[in-house]
Sequence to fold (334 residues):
Amino acid sequence: MATRWGICSAGKISNDFTVALKTLPPEDHQIVAVAARKLQDAQAFAKKHSIPRAYGGYEELARDPDIEVVYIGTIHPFHISASLLFMNAKKNVLCEKPLAMNSREVKEMVAAAKMNNVFLMEAVWTRFFPASLEIKRLLAQEEVGEVKMVRADFAIPQMHIRRAVEKELGGGALLDIGVYCLQFICMVYNGEKPESIQATGVCLDTGVDETMVVTLKFSRNRMAVFSCSLAVEMPNDAIIVGTKGTIKVPAHMWSPTSLMVNGKETQYPVPEPYLPLNFPNSTGLRYEAEEIRQCLLKGLKESPGMTHADSLLLAELEDEARRQVGVEYSQDQQ
Ligand SMILES: NC(=O)c1ccc[n+]([C@@H]2O[C@H](COP(=O)([O-])OP(=O)(O)OC[C@H]3O[C@@H](n4cnc5c(N)ncnc54)[C@H](OP(=O)(O)O)[C@@H]3O)[C@@H](O)[C@H]2O)c1
Fold:
């Protein structure tokens, strides 16, 4: 039986997730309905993607008995309210990254998932790409020896995008794109809590971080460093350096379609989209969608590839990096 999806919000990433879902077999993934704050937005989205039902309000989607799992593609300050709405209606939830604005909100969401006995995952799609699974396999088999250093960068000019720079819309480089570097480092070091984190950065007049550079020290003198920025474009690569070799993601480290292992490159192409995408490689969102299907079929309440503990660790590290750079959201004061 197909996994029955509802889409919450009719924005840019919801478009790309919907296109990605349709690269998967329809007997496995079915989109039942889309909801947006305004009915006309939901209707336009439904028409564009041939989705049978459109709702003007998220509550109606929560009440739809045919929805099994909701994909939440709202901007970050609304991740918690939307997630709680759907989980309290006994819907499983895949919520865009960052899961929430801070660790306090993440804890509340995880508690709601447990209380309602539903599945919850932060949509860290990177982890489910074939190239990422290959990285995990290489690390587990110690193909590059003991990892001593990880470096990752993600910087794309986004100063013209309101949600990226306005504080009340959840702006800031760390929560928007730095999170991809941080999750990469945490994946390589297998969810271990670092011994220390040191962040420095540049803030905009709006009070959010334009650029951050963060250094992490793990046990046994293992290190990591990442940078993220809304102001410039960087090569956006990542490298894992071990005592016996290196693994490199040459570009698009958040959606890897190629890997260089000790200088030898392998390609992992994503499928072509049937409609234009807003972001590069977005048909690769199909891998996390299929992960959700497999978890639900097994009755799991979290994915082993991106656990609740993984999300909490990310949020706690983000809280600390923001504290050091001086980025405080209204959600931090509650
Ligand atoms: N996985 C990825 O590659 C990826 C890429 C980009 C973004 N993201 C994540 O996805 C989320 C959405 O990003 P996006 O670029 O798709 O954003 P977006 O298109 O600007 O907005 C997404 C939706 O958020 C709601 N929204 C926007 N402004 C709002 C406001 N002022 N008040 C209440 N709701 C508002 C709207 O929902 P309605 O349609 O219901 O009105 C809108 O359609 C972010 O959390 C971001 O981190 C992930």
In short: Residues 9-13, 36-37, 41, 73-76, 78, 96-97, 123, 125, 163, 169, 176, 279 surround NAP (CB under 6 Å).
